[in-house]
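Deliverable D4.2, example record:
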Amino acid sequence: MLKAVIFDFDGVITDSEVLHLRAFNRSLVPFGVELSTKDYYQNYLGFSDFDCYKALIERDLIRIDEEKIPDIIKEKSRIYEHLARTEGRTIEGVNEFLKMLEANNVPMAICSGSLLAEIELLLDEAKLRHFFKVIVSAEQVKKGKPHPEGFLLSLRKLNEVCQPSITAAECIVIEDSQWGLKAGKDAGMHTIAVTNSYDADQLPLAEKVVDHLNELTLDDLQKLCM
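Output generated by the structure prediction step:
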């Protein structure tokens, strides 16, 4: 039985992946590095900011100590905030889907590799904050996606505010990347992918794939949890 839906944020709720890429590249100017769109989507999308910069260090693209990563993240976040305020937008079909879940009393959460301030900024701008009982952001986990820690923490937090209690098998994860889908699957949850960032054939871990969330009915969701 369906009891909760847990959303990724960037690329699922808001069309912000391209904004993250632009912010990353501006933060990397002092290092003489620029990520191509292909490289970002193939190797970094779905990671937390920390894990992205760590991967760049491991690939010897930037030469700094890991201890310096938080300083670059602060600069990247400053750039991203400006872009989000001026160019951020909700993805087509999201509002209708959230309202459908709310009308059917389905609790909703967000589990994202973004920082909490970045998530809340866009939710407030789009007037969507009230839909979500729980938000789990990058600061709250030790291991980002594809590790399932974030989704398991989301479930624990949902169970603090929801009765009766919810099991992993009663949750549906909605993601746009292979990393997020793996995390959801390893958490023991059902998975749906939206093709906002990748084509359907690049999302094999999803039990169901849609182009827009408003294509989904409550019956579709219930069937996944049977």
